[in-house]
Each structure stands twice: as structure tokens, then as C-alpha cells.
Design a protein that fits this description.
The chain contains eleven helices and five strands; from the N terminus they run αβββααβαβααααααα. The protein is mainly alpha-helical.
Length: about 230
């Protein structure tokens, strides 16, 4: 969400005089595995240069690298944000090192800031390149705690739901929300959304204490379903 907000704030702007779309910030998602070629193709697609326009010969890594550098330099890029960096861990140690070298090379060659986002394992992925790790400061988003700020956030979130009645939750329910979600923001949003849908379907039009007490996390349902399949031999 932070990355998307920044991407919208520094959105590309077309300059009719030069015919160039200036792109100060480029938001990308790391490929499912540390694949240099795929990453360069993602960059080309993100800046409006689809890979289908390239011949098979022009799609080797060296050619893609040259073209990507030239295009990004023309766009006036100042920052590259890469989400899901923990995907690097899906590759071998050698593949991880090569991909991290690509990130460091892009940052050096284009003189741009590099921002990497991901779950806690992302730190381990970046530490695979000592030089790159030294350049990046680590910032961790803390989980929500049982305090006034959390209570305000829940009330604001529920107020944003299309419910006809006010949800007057007890302190016990707020603690239950924390226990169910572990204070993880995405899980809290999923819980409130799920309960809001149920409230509309049942006609209650509000989130009740009983609804929270009886709610089963989506991630727990998936885990239980997986265990049932294993027991049945599927």
C-alpha cells in the first residue's frame, strides 16, 4: 500500500515537447524466481515497451540489459521500488547472487535510489549481497498493539464499510481481533471485510461481538482444508 501510494503521488507525466513520458518512480514486482531475463522483460512492459515487440534474438539478457538501461535513463528515473523481494529465495544461491548483482548494477548505472519491499524473509534475500545490503537501511513495519491507535483504526475501518447500522464493539472484541490476526494489517482488513459481507448477507447490517467471537480466519480455513485433504489421501 505504501508503494502504491508513492507510485500514484509520483505518477508518470507525458512531455509533449520532447515526446517522452517522464517517470520519476518505477514500481515493479520481483519475478517468482531470481530470473534476470524475466525481470528485464517486466521492466520493459512496465514502461510501455512490450516484449512482444522484440525479436527472439533481441531478447537475450545482454540485449535486454542495454535496452532497459537506455529506456530508463531517457525516462528520468529517480527511484526503483521492487515488491515481493523475498521471491529471490526461490532460486539457488548462484541465481540469487546474479539477481542481486542486477539490482546493484541498475542502481549504480542509473544513479537511482533502490527500495525493496517484502515480508521478513526479504531481509535475508538482500543480505545475500553484502555491498547492496550496506546501502539499504532496514525498516520494519510493526504489528498493531492493544492501544488507542488500534481502536481508532478499527472504528475508522468499520465506518468505511457499507453497513447501515453502527457497530458497537466491546473491548473484549478488539482484543479478539488482535488475537485472531496477530496484529497484521492485511489480516485485520480481511477480517473486517469478511465480517462486513456476512453482516450484509444476514441482514444484521453491523459487526457484532458474537460475529467476531465465532469468526474463523481465512488462513486457518485453508490450513484445515489442507489437513483434511492430506488425511483423505488426496
Amino acid at each position: 500500500m505504501i508503494a502504491r501510494n508513492l507510485s500514484r503521488e509520483y505518477a508518470p507525466e507525458y512531455d509533449p515537447a520532447s515526446g517522452i513520458t517522464h517517470t520519476p518512480l518505477l514500481l515493479l514486482q520481483a519475478p517468482p524466481a531470481p530470473d534476470e531475463r524475466r525481470f528485464y522483460l517486466h521492466i520493459l512492459a512496465a514502461v510501455g515497451a512490450p516484449a512482444t515487440a522484440l525479436s527472439a534474438r533481441a531478447q537475450n539478457v545482454a540485449s535486454l540489459e542495454v535496452r532497459v538501461i537506455a529506456l530508463l535513463r531517457d525516462l528520468g528515473l529517480r527511484m526503483i521500488m521492487i515488491d515481493e523481494v523475498h521471491n529471490l529465495l526461490a532460486g539457488t544461491h548462484r541465481e540469487q547472487r546474479r539477481f542481486l548483482n542486477v539490482l546493484r548494477y541498475l542502481s549504480n548505472e542509473l544513479e537511482v535510489s533502490l527500495v525493496c519491499l517484502g515480508v521478513s524473509e526479504a531481509v535475508d534475500a538482500i543480505r545475500g549481497d553484502i555491498q547492496l545490503a550496506r546501502r539499504l537501511d532496514e525498516h520494519h513495519l510493526p504489528n498493531w498493539r492493544d492501544d488507542a491507535e488500534f481502536s481508532d483504526m478499527i472504528q475508522t475501518l468499520i465506518a468505511a464499510m457499507p453497513l447501515e447500522k453502527k457497530s458497537n464493539l466491546k473491548i473484549k472484541s478488539l482484543k479478539q481481533i488482535l488475537a485472531l490476526t496477530g496484529g497484521v494489517t492485511s489480516r485485520i482488513f480481511a477480517l473486517i471485510k469478511d465480517l462486513s459481507i456476512d453482516a450484509i448477507v444476514t441482514g444484521d447490517e453491523c459487526i457484532t461481538d458474537d460475529a467476531i467471537a465465532n469468526w474463523t480466519p481465512v488462513w486457518s480455513r485453508h490450513a484445515n482444508a489442507h489437513r483434511r485433504l492430506e488425511k483423505s489421501g488426496v
